[in-house]
Design goal:
The protein starts with a strand and ends in a 7-residue tail after the last strand. With 284 residues, the chain is α+β, with helices and mostly antiparallel strands. The protein is globular and about 50 Å long. Helices cover 18% and strands 26% of the residues. The protein folds into two domains: 2-103 and 115-129 and 241-277, 4-Layer Sandwich (Double-stranded beta-helix); 140-233, no CATH class. Helix 1 links the parallel strand 2 and strand 3. The structure holds fe (ii) ion.
Length: 284
């Protein structure tokens, strides 16, 4: 495999000459994990994977983290419950996947649990002809590095609560009620500044803006601080944009980035198969 730079200078790399449908040797897997730690987002184009291929490859990155049941209480793919389907397509009156065609706001995946996922793998099977529905990633290392010194000092040691009540599409999860006071938000507590256990580099750790709260602060101060951090962290200088083609595989280092998605034409078809890799360490 070979690494080649992409447009963004702070995040992302394209991997070439790698066929994910073939068995991978130990060195290649180590190189992929290294690249994921260094570049945070890996773009691998031109793949042709069946679902067992996607699963076999994903297992090289760690233990799989199967999706929860869909609104119908069953996996989208009966034979492959470890795979999540991200799609707007409706067949026989029933969505074949999650998230629809709308925008997905900046977030990291599942930070409302104590040990959030290590990575996600997204494989594009069908992409709208106009190519819309781009995905964006922001490096939380770059965002932290560029903070003014007084702000770095201010957030040092602070902890936020990560709201568990809504999914990435903004839908209220079963068993949760609308949060009306952020001091009562339910979800995991994580430090605002994370230190990467491998490199020792510091990064912002924001998760999701909605219902986030810096514990112990007056609500207004917490809101102001979080707004400042979110505005800073999602500036284009820290981001990359991925324009999808069918056959693309994207892998992201979940705790180290934020990601978002553009909306696309609800009448076009977009189908992706996704796996998620379990985290192994708490955010610290
Ligand atoms: Fe996500």
């Amino acid at each position: 495999m070979e690494l080649s730079p992409i447009e963004s200078r702070v995040i992302g790399v394209e991997i070439q000459n790698l066929d994910l449908a073939k068995p991978l040797d130990r060195e290649t897997v180590a190189a992929i994990n290294d690249a994921l730690n260094r570049y945070l987002v890996l773009v691998i184009r031109g793949q042709r994977l069946c679902d067992p291929d996607l699963l076999a490859f994903s297992r090289h990155l760690g233990e799989l983290d199967p999706p929860g049941p869909n609104p119908y209480g069953e996996p989208f793919l009966k034979d492959f419950p470890e795979i999540n389907v991200i799609s707007n397509v409706v067949e026989q009156g029933r969505p074949i996947g999650n998230l629809g065609a709308g925008e997905a706001a900046w977030h990291a995946d599942m930070t409302y649990i104590d040990v959030p996922p290590k990575a996600a793998v997204l494989y594009a099977l069908e992409i709208p002809v106009d190519g819309a529905g781009d995905t964006y990633f922001a490096s939380m290392f770059a965002a932290y590095d560029a903070l003014p010194p007084d702000l770095k000092l201010e957030i040092d040691g602070k902890v936020t609560v990560h709201d568990a009540s809504r999914n990435s599409a903004g839908m209220l999860r079963r068993g949760y009620t609308e949060v009306t006071d952020v001091r009562e938000t339910r979800g995991a507590l994580h430090p605002l500044v994370r230190t990467d256990p491998r490199s020792g580099r510091k990064a912002l750790f924001l998760g999701r803006r909605h219902n986030s709260y810096v514990t112990g602060m007056p609500v207004e101060d917490s809101e102001n601080l979080l707004d400042r951090l979110w505005t800073h962290a999602t500036q284009s200088g820290f981001t990359m944009r991925h324009r999808w083609r069918a056959g693309d595989v994207l892998i992201w280092n979940n705790p180290a980035v934020l990601h978002r998605r553009d909306p696309f034409d609800a009448n076009s078809r977009r189908i992706m198969h996704r796996t998620q890799i379990k985290g192994v360490e708490r955010i610290a």
